[in-house]
Amino acid sequence: MNKFIFCLKIVTCSLLLWIFQCFFNCNSSKSVINKNVKEEILGLKYKRALGETTELKNEGPFDDIKFIDDENQDEGDEALTQEQENVPKIETTTQLGGYEEYSSDDEESETEELCKFHAEVSEKWNKNITHMWNVFCSQTRGFDGNWRAHKWYDVWHSRLSYENYKMDVVVFETSYPLEEKKKLLDKCLEAMTRDFKDFMSQCKEEWNKQAMLEAEKREQQKMILQKADDSYEKEKGKKEESVELLSSPLYKNENEDKKKFYQKLSKNWNDIIRSMWKLFKLKTEGINDAWRKKKWSEEWHSVITMEKTDLQLSFIEGHVPFGERIRLFDEWTFNLLSRFNLFLKTCIAEWNEKKLMESEGAEGAEGSEGSEGSEGSEGSEGSEGSEDSEDVEVD
User: Fold this and answer.
1) 334 and 269 in a common domain
2) How far apart are CA 264 and CA 256, in angstroms?
3) Same domain as 149, residue 287
4) Secondary structure of residue 280 in the 3-state scheme
5) Distance CA 131, CA 125 (A)
6) For the region Disordered, what residue ranges are annotated (predicted)?
7) Measured between alpha carbons, how far is 255 from 278 in angstroms, rounded to an integer?
8) What is the domain range of residue 102?
9) pLDDT digits (tens, 9 = 90+) for 73-131
10) Does residue 109 share a domain with residue 67?
């Protein structure tokens, strides 16, 4: 019986302790909710333009910012607006229905004032960002689209993120009174406006420098192309003049006697070339026909062409008198025949050397075959002798 009473007392004490603990936890949780209701409302129900904790669907590299006015956007700004389509509109109202049972009238009024203040700050923020965007687009119109996107997103976006962080700290700080928060936020917006002006001036200076460098490069390329065209025209004019001189007859603007002389001179030239060809065929008789034609066409024909050109230029450009031209032609004929004689001897010597090398190669091949045959016969005889000796040893 005593044991039963003792156990009953223990159970009763445990039940009382459990009831007291539940009542204490309920009051403490209610006080915590009432204390932090303003922060929870603003943190859970409101989305800032540059918020860092919002997770969006179809999130891109620039989806956490909203400052685009689609009606004022031109076609040239596609590189800057292609990442802004999925950004949600900023919210400017909050819902308080979920917290009515935990908050008093004073707390609700204070929370509503803070929400209104937050909405005003967000509206000012969006207006400033939209104005900055419009100014940036208007003052950088005509610039490279990729360069503009780099400047706005990579440079100025980081500055906006920093200002947004500062404003969040001020708004959600409970130790600041409302008037003090307004002053601090106005200072942040003014500082951001001044920094934006400096940012725009830096963008213009940098773009002007790049434009000047590009203009200098284009001028240099234009000068190089102009020089190349001028040199080409000069070379073309020189070639045309030389062709006209070479194609014009030697007896141009001469009298009938000189015309007859030049006709005779041309006939002598043709006779000389014909006699050279006959002599070449006679001296190289018995030589391979393909080899002879190759030596004549590739070596001697080019020499004849160059000599003829030099003779014509010396007559035309040198303004040689009529009597001197006969002497020059005779000297030129003698020199050409001397060079032809040397060319003929060289051809014959090359052919003889070639035939000698071929004959030596053939003899060497026959000697190697004979040596192989003798070695084979000696080897067979030696093998037979060894077999005989073996037979003898066996007997």
Assistant:
1) yes
2) 12
3) no
4) helix
5) 10
6) 358-395
7) 35
8) 7-224
9) 444 455 445 544 443 333 333 333 343 444 455 556 667 777 787 788 888 888 888 88
10) yes
